[in-house]
Known about the structure:
This protein folds into two domains: 1-44, YefM-like domain (YefM-like fold, 3-Layer(aba) Sandwich); 57-96. It has a three-stranded mixed sheet with strand order 1-2-3. The protein has helices at residues 9-14, 16-24, 46-52, 69-95; strands at 5-8, 29-33, 36-41. It is built from four helices and three strands; from the N terminus they run E-H-H-E-E-H-H. It is an alpha+beta fold.
Amino acid sequence: MSKSSIIGLKELRENTEHYIRAIDKGKSFTVVRRSKPIFRLEPVEEADDDRLWDTKIDLTQIDPHGVHIDQVIASLKRLQLQDRKKGHESARQKSR
């Protein structure tokens, strides 16, 4: 494993995209706040990635740039409402 560079939390906040690109190239960073280490940033190994994440849906298939979270939540609420209506209709038919 390569040596981790030390960066401040403020530096990370102000230059997040820079550090994401560096991590994507294999670099690791230890983030400090008030001179104390608080977490590490490091690339995810491909083998670990498959084990850690289980893809349920790829929203880039809907829109290559991704889907805004508000659209996802609105769709989930609509589906939940539809399921409730179906449940009420099913219960009514059973009571007849």
